[in-house]
Amino acid sequence: MAIDTADIVLEETSGKGRYLFRADGAEAEMTFSKAGEHLVIIDHTGVPDAFRGQGVGQALVLRGVTDARAAGKKILPLCTFAAAQFRRHPEWSDVLSAR
């Protein structure tokens, strides 16, 4: 299954949010908190076994990176999965927070 970031839904409130991918009755998510106007903290990525090995988790983080770039924000990946994705993708360093 090829995951297009356009298939990922963004749900957000004033202080928190999540990126959500649903298919075949399963749901994957990446949650985040907003820390001020210019910082997003990724705190959790959850991918069910049904999606493992299909790039769903990476697509969730990529969608967050794309949205952060467009909004001029930085990302602090506290979630271990998201942090690992940032290490694997040095091209995302422009949105990586130094905090």
Query: What is the global morphology?
Result: globular
Quickly count the helices. 2
The termini sit apart by 35 Å
Order of strands in the sheet with most strands: 1-2-3-4-5
What's the short story on this structure?
By secondary structure, this protein is of the alpha+beta class.
Structure description:
The protein has 99 residues and is of the alpha+beta class. The protein contains two helices and five strands. It has helices at residues 56-71, 80-88; strands spanning 9-12, 16-23, 26-34, 39-46, 74-77. It has a five-stranded mixed beta sheet with strand order 1-2-3-4-5. Helix 1 (56-71) links the parallel strand 4 (39-46) and strand 5 (74-77). The longest helix has 16 residues, at 56-71. The N and C termini lie far apart (35 Å). The relative contact order is 0.18. The model has no long low-confidence stretch (mean pLDDT 94).
Structural features:
99 residues; alpha+beta; 5-stranded mixed beta sheet; 5 strands; 25% helix; 33% strand
